[in-house]
From TrEMBL:
Its cofactor is Zn(2+); Co(2+). The keyword Hydrolase applies. This is Acetylornithine deacetylase or succinyl-diaminopimelate desuccinylase. Belongs to the peptidase M20A family. SUPFAM superfamilies: Bacterial exopeptidase dimerisation domain, Zn-dependent exopeptidases. Residues 202-308 form the Peptidase M20 dimerisation domain. InterPro entries: ArgE/DapE, Bact_exopeptidase_dim_dom, Peptidase_M20, Peptidase_M20_dimer, Peptidase_M20A. It comes from the Bacteria. One of its GO terms (molecular function) is metal ion binding. It comes from Aminomonas paucivorans DSM 12260. Keywords: Cobalt, Hydrolase, Metal-binding, Zinc. The keyword DNA-binding does not apply.
Length: 410
């Protein structure tokens, strides 16, 4: 029996254990302390024991200090298995999950997994427990069959992905740069589609802006005595929308849509009654910039439109960045990690995946900024952050098969 068939058979045998491990992970809510949770400590402790139970080398810990977390740290785990040749292949999955949201929209306790109709339901089952378990059991399958990897395999289970990765991947890159090399192959299995037919190699830069317009609140019958912040916010929002689209018309066919996007989104409540002219307005823009557009240039346009409004209205305007990323160069479509991943996906799913860019952000961008090519792929249902989040067990098994092929370089 050839290696592929042996691996697939072993992964199929491990399916019940994989499902059980995923259910265990759902039961350990790793919600960030910034969102009112306890962080990843309990989940990391579980994984440290599970890794040993699976016959794999013990986890290395790279804790990030966080005074808001129990014990004052956010854990990051790395499992290393040496390979027969030179090189290193990383799989980065994250332990943290988002809060459950409105519990009335769930038919179950979000943190008690349910298995039904070929799916595992629960918060974190899809994002990112499925991929964590798939990478872990792909490596176990190789170990069980005494098949050494083609190169060193590093499984990283990281903290804080949902709130920006400050205590996760950024901590590893900033405080432990010795872990990485530009020659590393990095896979972030944290985004994809139902068919498993898309590999993300580029991301737009997030540029999230919150603008505050301050005037003077007065009675609705005496606008002459006040300064209407609502009118100023309306004018500024429209001016920003037009100016930003006009200033940055660049296109890139790698992305859908192929342009930078500048979208007015959130508007905070102002006054509770109709007959009061508000003296303060807060609104937001969600901008996603093509890699060729630098955030500093966008900020320059924002400042100019604010200056014009202040000069013509006498209102005071301030702004802050909810998020402002660094432009990340795309990963080359023929980079080794992309080619190996494409071969593995085609072998398992029978289709050659297309490559492209997305408007959303993943932690792959942090590696690209550091000059380390990274690819993003998963076969997953689009249920992340939703009530009734679930993962298809068939996707879990397919991912384990893909990852095992990459590890063995089949």
């Amino acid at each position: 029996m050839e290696v592929r068939e042996r691996l697939d058979r072993r992964i199929a045998e491990l399916e019940p254990e994989m499902v059980g491990t995923l259910c265990d992970l759902v039961a350990l809510p790793a919600v960030s302390p910034q969102d009112g949770g306890l962080g990843e400590g309990a989940k990391a402790a579980y994984l440290e024991k599970k890794v040993l139970d699976l016959g794999l080398p013990p986890c290395e810990r790279y804790d990030a200090p966080d005074p808001e977390a129990p014990g004052g740290v956010r854990p990051n785990l790395v499992v290393r298995v040496p390979g027969t040749g030179a090189g290193r292949l990383w799989f980065f999955s994250h332990m943290d999950v988002v809060p459950e949201g409105d519990r009335s929209l769930w038919t179950q306790d979000p943190f008690v997994a349910q298995v039904r109709d070929g799916r595992v339901y629960g918060r974190g089952a899809n994002d990112n427990g499925q991929e964590l378990v798939a990478s872990l059991y792909a490596l176990k399958a190789l170990r069980d069959l005494d098949l050494p990897p083609a190169f060193e395999i590093c499984l990283a289970f990281v903290a804080d992905e949902e709130l920006g990765s400050r205590y996760g991947i950024c901590h590893l890159l900033d405080r432990h740069p010795e872990l990485f090399s530009p020659q590393d192959l990095v896979l972030v299995p944290d985004g994809g589609n139902e068919e498993g037919s898309f590999i993300e190699i580029a991301e737009k830069t997030p540029f999230w802006l919150e603008v505050t317009v301050e005037g003077k609140q007065v009675h609705g019958s005496r606008p002459d005595l006040g300064k209407n912040a609502c009118r100023g916010a309306n004018e500024l929002s429209v001016a920003l929308d037009r100016a930003l689209h006009r200033a940055f018309p660049e296109t890139d066919p790698l992305f859908e849509p192929p342009v930078s996007t500048f979208e007015p989104t959130r508007r905070l409540p102002n006054v509770a009654n109709v007959n009061t002219i508000p003296g303060r307005e807060v609104f937001c823009f969600d901008c996603r910039l093509l890699p060729s557009v630098h955030p500093d240039a966008v900020e320059g346009v924002v400042r100019e439109e604010i200056r014009r409004l202040e000069e013509t209205t006498g209102l005071r305007v301030t702004y802050r960045f909810v998020q402002k990323g660094d432009p990340a160069p795309p990963t080359d479509a023929v980079a080794p990690v992309v080619e190996r991943l494409s071969r593995a996906v085609k072998d398992v799913l029978g289709k050659t995946p297309r490559v492209g860019g997305i408007g959303g952000g993943t932690c792959a961008a942090f590696f690209r900024v550091q000059g380390i090519p990274a690819a993003v792929w998963a076969q997953e249902s689009d249920t992340a952050h939703m009530p009734e989040e679930y993962t298809d067990i068939s996707h879990l098994v397919h991912e384990a098969r893909v990852f095992a092929r990459m590890m063995r370089d089949l």
